[in-house]
């Protein structure tokens, strides 16, 4: 719920910034005729550079937004009642209450830390991140996800937590529904 609110606020703020840029851009060309020819060329070059940067960075950014795992923080819709997995981070290990999960059924990970901050990240068999959330002492964060592909998934820590950080992982298996 909180993630949805933050997402909406972020979109609104991005729109406000975009409107501000658009306003400045539309009103900046009106005074160009008052400048010397060399300055006019510089302003035209700057405008081309701006739109070039928008094309190079903006278009791919918008086109790849759908690849981000934002659906992992929204409540899973398919498959009935959610499986609950309690995940606790310790220096330098994860403890999971379940090691077998059904594919196609929503999973609710209740993530907490017993000591310091950890990053709870789920990776598929190709080591691509599927979903992630922060594990913090004294707070339980909820991560919801529906796994569609069976296989072995790894939980790795995304936040450096000390000398044994590189060994901090756990595994669970996603199996076909019976």
UniProtKB/TrEMBL annotation:
GO terms for molecular function: copper ion binding; cytochrome-c oxidase activity; oxidoreductase activity. Keywords: Copper, Membrane, Metal-binding, Oxidoreductase, Transmembrane, Transmembrane helix. Its EC number is 1.9.3.1. Residues 80-178 form the Cytochrome oxidase subunit II copper A binding domain. The keyword Methyltransferase does not apply. CDD domains: CuRO_HCO_II_like_1. It is found in: Cell envelope. SUPFAM superfamilies: Cupredoxins (SSF49503). GO terms for cellular component: cell envelope; membrane. The keyword Thylakoid does not apply. The chain crosses the membrane at residues 6-26, 47-65. PANTHER family: CYTOCHROME C OXIDASE SUBUNIT II, NITROUS-OXIDE REDUCTASE. This is Cytochrome c oxidase-like protein. It comes from Thauera aromatica K172.
């Amino acid at each position: 719920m909180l993630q949805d609110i933050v997402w909406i606020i972020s979109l609104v703020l991005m729109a406000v910034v975009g409107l501000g840029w658009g306003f400045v851009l539309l009103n900046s060309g009106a005074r160009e005729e008052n400048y010397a020819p060399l300055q006019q060329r510089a302003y035209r070059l700057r405008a081309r550079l701006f739109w070039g940067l928008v094309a190079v960075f903006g278009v791919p950014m918008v086109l790849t937004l759908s690849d981000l795992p934002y659906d992992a923080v929204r409540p899973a819709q398919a498959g009935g009642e959610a499986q609950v997995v309690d995940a606790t981070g310790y220096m330098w290990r994860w403890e999971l209450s379940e090691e077998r999960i059904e594919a196609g059924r929503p999973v609710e990970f209740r993530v907490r830390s017993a000591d310091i901050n950890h990053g709870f990240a789920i990776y598929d068999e190709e080591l691509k991140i599927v979903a992630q959330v922060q594990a913090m002492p004294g707070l339980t964060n909820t991560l919801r996800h529906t796994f569609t592909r069976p296989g072995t998934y790894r939980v790795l820590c995304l936040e450096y937590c000390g000398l044994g950080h590189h060994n901090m992982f756990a595994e669970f298996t996603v199996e076909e529904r019976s």
